[in-house]
Design brief:
There is one protein chain. This protein has 415 residues and is α+β, with helices and mostly antiparallel strands. The chain is 46% helix and 17% strand. It has a five-stranded antiparallel β-sheet with strand order 3-4-5-6-7.
Length: 415
């Protein structure tokens, strides 16, 4: 009876989250069409993403440059990209405190390098620059190694608390019967799944799962078990209306990189969405330039009525039947230089939305630069990128905090 009530409540909550997300999905599809390498389906999990159809890939390249710049300057395995501190700075004067924090930093950096953190952070940041938010799941494997997972944006449904913090994430995904049984155990799946699993021909059958992570309202922190943790995690077999597993987390296990939050919603704007008018104009001008180029190379021909055997192939010869017969290209009045000028103007406008020139300033600067010039460029960049640096710091701070606490509970930090 308790499980039935829980199932009913979670599926009702999921329906509300789907309705909230549906308001943004059309904009996300548009953003991926013009500035991403794939276009996702938002209606059903497990579908193969489609390739975008557009006339130029410049916005996609600029987006990649922005992502590479963010990762290169803020999250690089070659950098010490964070420093640990204490809420009360007075404690730093205590004997050995700073040394202990430095040792913890080294352990965290080593853990990030051993794990798949840098690999999975890349697509999360790319999601944020394209559709406005990117999500990274932070968990621990059976081998006690930290595990970071980027889930596709079309699988996730987010919600925020009264303070505007993302504290709820429902994940709707599809997996094979074999993987589900291996992950949850044969005893935890429903009777129909156990029966199907006996036949190997059904092992690759696709099954839809709903993963629900949300804050628990009623729990006893004195009990150190999964059902008395601050955040609940419930896995539901949607087809059979069956709870596969109920567990929990000490911290919210998802880190969300939000570009610029829409007030009152769990989702954000992005540079791609902000630049959409310029990106669309760029595609229209690029289409026109291709049409002009093709018309110039293969112009429409004007011929007199008596001409029938016309050879327009390279080095082809067409014999005029009479001296009055004519064969000449039709001039449509196209102006290719003006089109190229407009193309360049809009390309620069789109580059500005993605901060391309700022991230490439050091590489594009001609000649050697003095230390003062480098500092000026860095300062100008920091001032221009302040709008999202705060959100990036929140994203990284959540990752570091959860990773630190997980290592501490596992006894893997210096003592």
């Amino acid at each position: 009876m308790e499980n039935e009530e829980l199932l009913k409540n979670l599926k009702s909550r999921w329906s509300q989250l789907k309705d909230n997300r549906a308001k943004f999905e059309a904009d996300w599809t548009e953003a991926q069409t013009y500035a991403d390498n794939v276009v996702m389906s938002w209606g059903k999990p497990g579908e193969v993403p489609k390739r975008a159809k557009r006339y130029t890939s410049k916005p996609f390249n600029y987006n990649k440059t922005l992502v590479a710049g963010i990762l290169g300057y803020a999250v690089s395995p070659s950098l010490v990209w964070f420093k640990l501190g204490l809420e009360d700075p007075k404690l730093l004067s205590g004997y050995g405190v700073k040394d202990w924090l430095e040792d913890c930093e080294k352990e965290l950096l080593a853990m990030f390098n051993r794990s798949n953190f840098y690999k999975e952070t890349n697509p999360a940041v790319k999601d944020s620059t394209c559709i406005g938010h990117g999500v990274l799941f932070i968990d621990e494997g059976d081998d006690l190694r930290m595990r970071f997972t980027h889930f596709p944006a079309n699988e996730l449904f987010l919600d925020v608390n009264a303070y505007g913090e993302v504290d709820t994430c429902f994940r709707w995904y599809a997996d094979t019967l074999r993987n589900i049984v291996q992950f949850f155990g044969l005893d935890n799946v429903c009777d129909s799944m156990r029966e199907a699993y006996k036949d190997e021909q059904h092992w690759n059958d696709s099954c839809e799962i709903l993963m629900c992570v949300y804050p628990r309202e009623n729990y006893n922190p004195e009990f150190k078990n999964n059902k008395n943790m601050p955040f609940a995690c419930v896995f539901i077999d949607l087809a059979n209306n069956h709870i596969l597993k109920e567990t929990g987390f000490n911290e919210f296990p998802f880190a969300v990189f939000e570009w610029e939050r829409y007030a009152g919603f769990a989702y954000s704007s992005s540079p791609t969405q902000d630049a959409m008018p310029d990106i669309k104009a760029l595609n229209i001008i690029k289409k026109s330039s291709l049409q002009i180029a093709q018309t110039s190379a293969e112009p429409p021909m004007m011929a007199t009525e008596e001409m029938h055997e016309i050879d327009l192939s390279p080095r082809g010869i067409t014999y005029l039947p009479t001296k009055d017969a004519r064969l000449e290209p039709v001039r449509t009045g196209e102006n290719y230089p003006i089109t190229l000028q407009e193309l360049g103007n809009y390309e620069q406008s789109v580059k500005d939305w993605y901060f391309v020139d700022y991230f490439l300033a050091l590489q594009e600067k001609q000649g050697n630069m003095t230390a003062t010039e480098v500092m000026e460029l860095q300062g100008e960049k920091a001032a221009t990128l302040t709008t999202f640096i705060v959100n990036l710091n929140d994203f990284l701070s959540n990752i570091i905090t959860r990773s630190f606490l997980m290592l501490m509970r596992a006894g893997r930090l210096p003592k």
